[in-house]
Design brief:
single chain, about 65% helix
């Protein structure tokens, strides 16, 4: 039988996963606010939240990354990629994981995965909030 995870490590992983989901949700909300179309907003939500955008970006990074060195660095900061890397690093800190999204061949950010994910999620939340506020700044609500 496996040893139970320490409570602090479990809550750290759970908190980072929740923060990642909030980041993805706010990105979808910002994109929907920019497009201002219900149908396009739902399509964008499905593509972003399902990981299709992340999968496409990582595939392109693997193909084009050898010629353009900056592409894998950009892909490493996508929220869905960080959620996958965070879940894949969970066994290393004694937590269970069922994610199989690791091994993207992405460059090392020079920090632990949890710190990279934390910075990424906070940055995307701030960016999505700013975009939403700017898009709604002159919008008439009535």
């Amino acid at each position: 039988m496996a040893d139970p995870e320490p409570l602090g490590q479990y809550w750290r992983l759970a908190g980072l996963n929740i923060l990642g989901v909030v980041a993805v949700t706010l990105i979808v909300s910002a994109m929907h606010t920019i497009v201002r179309s219900k149908v396009a907003g739902v399509i964008i939500a499905v593509f972003i939240a399902s990981g299709a955008v992340s999968s496409l970006a990582t595939s392109c990074a693997q193909l084009v990354g050898s010629r353009l060195d900056w592409i894998p660095h950009v892909v490493a900061w996508l929220p869905m990629v960080n959620l996958g890397l965070l879940d894949d690093s969970a066994p290393a800190v004694g937590l269970t994981s069922s994610a199989t999204q690791g091994a993207f061949g992405l460059p090392d950010a020079g920090m632990p995965v949890w710190a990279h994910a934390l910075v990424c999620f906070i940055g995307w939340i701030a960016l999505a909030a700013a975009v939403t506020l700017l898009a709604n700044r002159r919008r008439d609500v009535c």
